[in-house]
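Putative pre-16S rRNA nuclease
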Amino acid sequence: MSEKIVCVDVGLKRIGVAFGFKGIAVPLSPILRKNRNQAASDLAKILNEYDAKILVVGVPKGGASEDEMRRRIEHFISLVNFSGDIVYQNEAFSSFEASDLANDGRDGKFDSISAMIILKRYLKIT
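Predicted C-alpha cells:
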C-alpha cells in the first residue's frame, strides 16, 4: 500500500500516534490530551503534516465496555477535521504487546508503540 496512513490509539491522557507508508510503520510522538478539542486539533495537524489519506483508529473488541469505548472514540474522531478515509481496527492486546517493546509507559512512547502495533495489524489485512 503506497498511501500515507496515520494510526491512533486513543486514551484519556495520551493518544498514541504512528505513521505508515509503503508497508513501514513507525511510532510518532504521542498527543498529550488536555481536552478533546485540543487533542482533535493536534491530531488534525499531524494528519495534515504527514499528508495522510487514511486514519486508522484502534478500538477495543470484546469486553463489557466495548460499546461505550467505541462510542467515545467515534465521538472524538468526529471532532477531527479530516476528509480522508477512517478505518476502525481491533486494538485488542496491543498495549500488552507494546509493553514488551517499551520499558516505561509514562513518557507516552508506550502509547505510540501500541498505535504502531495496531497499524501493523491493519497493514497485514490490506
